[in-house]
Model the fold of this input.
Amino acid sequence: MLVSGIGTLLILPALARFFESALFKVPAAGGGFCNPVSCISILIIAIISITYGIHQFGVAGWTPLVWGVVAGLFATAIGCHLASKTEICNPG
Done:
C-alpha cells in the first residue's frame, strides 16, 4: 500500500500537468453546462459508479428506485445537451 500511495502521489500531479489545458479550461459565459463534453463525462462516470456499486455489493439490486436514478441521470444528460444549445452558450 505504501508503494501504491507513493505512486499515486507521483503519477496524479504528472497527469494533471499533462492534461492541464483539457482539464482546467477557462469557464464559458454560461457556466459548466455550456461544455457538453464535461457534462456528459460526469454523468457517464456517475452511471458507471452507481452500476458498479450495485453489482459489487449486490445489496440493492436493480430495484425501481435504482432504475429511477439511472433514468434521472439520462434525463439530466439530455437536459445538459439541450442547455448547451441555448443562446447563453452560443451568443450571436
